[in-house]
Amino acid sequence: MDEVDIDVFLGVRRLDVVETGRRRRWTGEAKQRIVEEAFQRGLPVLAVARRHDVDPSQIYDWRKRLFPHISKGVRGFAPVVVTPDVPVSSSRNQMEIVCGNGRRIIVDRDVDVAALLRVLAAIDQ
Fold first, then answer.
1. DSSP the chain
2. Which architecture, in CATH terms, is 23-71?
3. Could you read off the pLDDT of 12-60 as tens digits, one per residue?
4. Are 111 and 99 in contact (CB under 8 A)?
5. Per-domain residue ranges for the chain?
């Protein structure tokens, strides 16, 4: 057995060991319910984490494990495919955006960029 240097505790009169309890166990259904609640539109993950007394990083970890198809890409970015110029049937100076989920957006060349980014973020969820 190793020797303990008593001098370390000279200024300490009392030392309490606090038990934090045992680890909580969540069922798969409970994890899924919490993750789905946390990623509802307009609901902050932090609020859901506090409601269930869970660390927000735990909710993100559960989402990665339960829904791996969601976590593969980086949020806010979408794959882009560049194709050769194709004659456009319309001369109205429009642009077509085809999203990874198959949805199409057609916008005018004078589209408000901030509004377009909000639309793209909304359909990405």
1. -----GGGGTT-S--PPPP--PPP---HHHHHHHHHHHTSTT--HHHHHHHHT--HHHHHHHHHHH-HHHHSSPTT------------S--S-EEEEE-TTS-EEEEETT--HHHHHHHHHHHH-
2. Orthogonal Bundle (1.10)
3. 666 666 666 667 788 888 998 898 888 887 778 899 999 898 999 999 8
4. no
5. 23-71, 76-125
